[in-house]
Design brief:
CATH architecture: Alpha-Beta Barrel
Order of helices and strands: HEHEHHHHEHHEHEHH
Radius of gyration: 17 Å
Strand content: 5-15%
Structural class: alpha/beta
CATH class: Alpha Beta
Number of domains: 1
CATH topology: TIM Barrel
CATH superfamily: Metal-dependent hydrolases
Helix content: 40-55%
Number of strands: 5
Amino acid sequence: MLPLQEVGAAVAELRRAVKEYGMVGGLLPADGLPRPLGHQDFYPLYEEANRLGCMMAVHSQNSLRNNDLFMWRHEAATLAHVWPQMRQFTNLMFSGVLGRLPDLKIAFLEAGCGWVPYLMSKMEPRMGELLRPSKLIERGQIYFQCGEEMTTSRDLELLGDDCLFWASDFPHEGIVDMAKAVKEFLDREDIPDAAKRKISYHNPKRLYAL
């Protein structure tokens, strides 16, 4: 988790974590900051990730700000993760930063991917000369967590199988039975075996540069 309140410190911490400890990337909060992640203040961090060849993960969380919007716990569980991800994804796409940094890879975690085709259909006609999400997917620069939603087979048709990967939410063992969750994904009959191999192995291997 990088300290984005001070971008210089975040750059130094990312470099230290990758160079000294072999970490595969850094974590960015989807909510709680005064500026969205596509703001130019954060560009030095993305430039460093581009130089290091490591990924950045936008991870949703239930911030106090978001929780104030909801009346019921399950309402918050339904919406609190996906709203910030949608905002940050849209903001980063319109910032154009990934188009300028071809080795920068960003993954969007903890909110599934069912929202992605909708947003892409809304934003791509408005992007002008900016590199569009469909092109960034083709270049291997953006990834989305998937696998537990009933829409995954549809999302595969709309997004392809090169940008999706299954995320366990480790270390939430106890909340989620990991072995059972893995088996349930691999047993799904609505996802082709070739796509399962990409989602569960080849795509995360490429994302994390393993």
